[in-house]
């Protein structure tokens, strides 16, 4: 889809890892389609995952009792969040498609990505990850809650136990999916009453 | 239980928060019992939650392809992990009881605590949190996997929507539980076959 903007939020320490390959193949395929692809490489950027009062520049609205949620919301309205958060939020806002690319480590996320979501999207909301029995992150969690339409996840299970050939197959199947990703429909998510609305 | 050592791993930015009160009451009650209580106050310590190659001092065992898990394990054997990790691991090793005290933010953990667990215990394993329908962190996850016997969690739901009186009741019920915590039996956890043993 020529002209579309894609943001890949990528969290892995080793560029030559399986995760690195999945990211590289996504950049290649989407660029081939004429998309503009931006990668937020969180480890390479040394992204700050700690949500602290340093995220708010200028005066706090309730200095006597620090609440990150309250202060971040007020600072967002006044555009007084720290510059690395504003830069990431701008990328998210401009993107037609945002991808999160990270190792599952069974069913976990690395702290640096958790920090990205906490600081850039909304702090600490419903961060349960697609586990063995549910898909809470997607259906009830951060992404849907923050207003994303969510596509089905793409999970490559246990690449460290797969053969080189099988891993290449996993990378190829990701590239294959990306060819038609713009035609995909969002998955059903939790209704508004789930959030008390 | 006089003479017992307790480690409280505490993650909250605001000392005067509800979480701060729960931590303070635990320190008071356990000290009263004659325990030695150590608090790792992760925000106050500015604890580094990013798991990176900086955690390994000296040479890497596989410099051509960085794997955090491999390198951290080798460095642990050689005692060449970075000093803040070694200090935390020592506290864990010496403790008879370890408590994790943090806001759930619905069913999430803050990135800084996630980073503590990743760097100090074992990276990224099975970090699903007691959600609405499961209790994976405890039964299958990081703690049990790392060799802890796990007591039932103590959760105070939605203190921000409770009255001042109700919040005081929550803090009091935590203090009450601590009076007999040394008599508690561990909860049943996943059997060894769950981990492929």
Automatic annotation (TrEMBL), chains A, B:
Q: Which UniProt keywords apply?
A: Oxidoreductase
Q: Which domain of life is it from?
A: Eukaryota
- Domain Flavodoxin-like fold residue range list: 4-137
* A single MF term (Gene Ontology): NAD(P)H dehydrogenase (quinone) activity
> Which GO cellular component terms are attached?
cytosol
Q: Where are the transmembrane segments?
A: none
Query: Which sequence ranges form a coiled-coil region, renumbered to this chain?
Result: none
Q: Which residues form the signal peptide?
A: none
Protein family according to the UniProt entry = Belongs to the NAD(P)H dehydrogenase (quinone) family.
Q: What is this protein called?
A: Ribosyldihydronicotinamide dehydrogenase [quinone] isoform X2
Origin organism is: Tursiops truncatus (Atlantic bottle-nosed dolphin)
């Amino acid at each position: 889809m020529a002209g579309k903007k894609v943001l890949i939020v990528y969290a892995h320490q080793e560029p030559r890892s399986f995760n690195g390959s999945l990211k590289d193949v996504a950049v290649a395929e989407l660029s081939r389609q004429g998309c503009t692809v931006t990668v937020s490489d969180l480890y390479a950027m040394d992204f700050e995952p700690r949500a602290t009062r340093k995220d708010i520049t200028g005066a706090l609205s309730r200095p006597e009792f620090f609440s990150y949620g309250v202060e971040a919301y007020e600072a967002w309205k006044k555009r007084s969040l720290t510059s690395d958060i504003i830069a990431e939020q701008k990328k998210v806002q401009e993107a037609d498609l945002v991808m999160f690319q990270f190792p599952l480590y069974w069913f976990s996320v690395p702290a640096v990505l958790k920090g990205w979501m906490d600081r850039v999207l909304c702090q600490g909301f419903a961060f349960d990850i697609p586990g063995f029995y549910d898909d809470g992150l997607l259906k009830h969690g951060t992404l849907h809650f923050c207003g994303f339409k969510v596509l089905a996840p793409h999970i490559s299970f246990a690449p460290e136990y797969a053969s080189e050939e099988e891993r290449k197959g996993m990378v190829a199947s990701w590239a294959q999916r990306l060819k038609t990703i713009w035609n995909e429909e969002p998955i059903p998510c939790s209704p508004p009453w789930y959030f008390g609305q």
